[in-house]
Every structure is written in C-alpha cells, then in structure tokens.
Amino acid sequence: MPYIESPLPTPSAGTAEQPFSLSRPEASSEQVPVPQPSMPTSDPATTAPLSTIFDSLSGTWTLHRRLTSQLPGYPCGKFTGTASFTPHPALAETGSSYLYHETGELQTDSGLVLRANQKYIYHHDTTNEKLAIWFVKPRDDEADRPGSDDDEADYLYMELEMGLDATLGGWTGRGDHLCEMDFYQGFFDWRVVQAGDEMRRFGIQYKVKGPQKDYLSETAYVKQ
C-alpha cells in the first residue's frame, strides 16, 4: 500500500497533460483504461526481450492512475504524479535492480486530495532471466525521505510470467501475490515487440480482492 498523507485543499483547475490511454488513443482524459488482455500466447522459440524492457525503465515517467473500488472502505479517484527508476545495489548477486519511487496526489471522487508515495525494487534476474518486483523495507522516516541506496529489498511481491499477447501485439507480463487474505493480480503491458525497441510508454493493471478490498488500479506511464 502507498504511504498517504493527510488531505490537502483541492487545487484550482489547470491545464494538465493528457494521460496515455492503453486501449484507445482517442480516449478522454477522464479515463485511463487498460484493456482486458487475452491470455499470452508465447512462441517457445521466442525469448522475451527482458534487457530491452528493463533498460528502458531507467529514468523518470509521468503517471496517471485510476482507482475503482467496489467497497466503501477504499478510495476511488485519480492519481497523478511522477515515477523514477534509479539504479540500485539491491539483489546485486543475481542481476540488476532499480529503486522505483513514485510521488503524487490522489484526488478522490469524494473531493479530497491526498499526497501519496510508494517504493518498490524492480529486479532483472540475469541468472534465470526473470523480471521481479520486491517490496522495500519500511522505515519510520518514510514520509519525508527520498529514495536512496539505503533502501533495502524486503520480500518478493511478484515474479512476472512473460508472454506475447495476441490482442496487444507485444510483450506482456503477469504476476500475483497473496498478502494474508488479499489477492493481487498484476498485468503489465510493456509496449515492446522485439529486442531493441524503445519503450516510451507502458501500463500496469492490478486487481485486488479480499475481505476488506475489492478494487481495480489502472496506471499509464509516459516517459519524460
């Protein structure tokens, strides 16, 4: 879960960058839709271009997220912010890692504006040719601290199963995670067809279900 600070006053209206739509380029800025993907159909003779995908993540991205909850205890709304992927020494014995750090504001459908941030470790396991996401160990000063080499990998969140998606025409990843009684399903649309492609945008969809959670998180990333 992201760290969320206390509510802020609602900002005045301004001109914002149009969010990237994963399913329809002409979609309105009121939506950040992620298509329901078909099951990945992998060619056994084809290897996912993990180095291309992982190397392309480096840098800073603009993100737009839509949260849609079916339960009243979890907010619905739009999150806008930035995310950075910075080289990090975590898990160096098996490959290369980035510290993922996002910050921004969530404007809830009820009118509240909340500042939020969260961190993960993205890891390319070059020994087993896998992409994985790890939780970062929490710290008491997390609210005010930027990302640094002091951040440590805690435990595995998701290891992604890669596949070529017949509908999207590119490489995708799937993963899942059981956190006590909450089940997280992740879908990653990498917007990469082959090695050497330049990935300037990608999308992530999470479906989360549990006794106190039932929500969909859809995020579109555009490289700055």
Structure overview:
By secondary structure, the protein is mainly beta. It has a single domain (45-223), classed as Beta Barrel (Lipocalin). Helices cover 4% and strands 51% of the residues. The protein has one helix spanning 50-57, and strands at 3-8, 59-69, 77-88, 95-108, 113-125, 130-136, 153-159, 161-165, 170-179, 182-189, 201-210, 213-223. Strands 1, 2, 3, 4, 5, 6, 7, 8, 9, 10, 11 and 12 form a twelve-stranded antiparallel β-sheet that branches.
Tally of extended strands?
12
Query: Helix tally?
Result: 1
Cα end-to-end separation: 25 Å
The helix-strand sequence is EHEEEEEEEEEEE
Structure at a glance:
The protein has one helix at 50-57, and strands at 3-8, 59-69, 77-88, 95-108, 113-125, 130-136, 153-159, 161-165, 170-179, 182-189, 201-210, 213-223.
List the helices and strands and how they pair.
Layout: E1 3-8, H1 50-57, E2 59-69, E3 77-88, E4 95-108, E5 113-125, E6 130-136, E7 153-159, E8 161-165, E9 170-179, E10 182-189, E11 201-210, E12 213-223
Antiparallel strand pairs: 1-5, 2-3, 2-12, 3-4, 4-5, 5-6, 6-7, 8-9, 9-10, 10-11, 11-12
Which features would summarize this protein structure in a list?
Lipocalin; 1 helix; mainly beta; disordered N terminus; 224 residues; single chain; 12-stranded antiparallel beta sheet; 4% helix
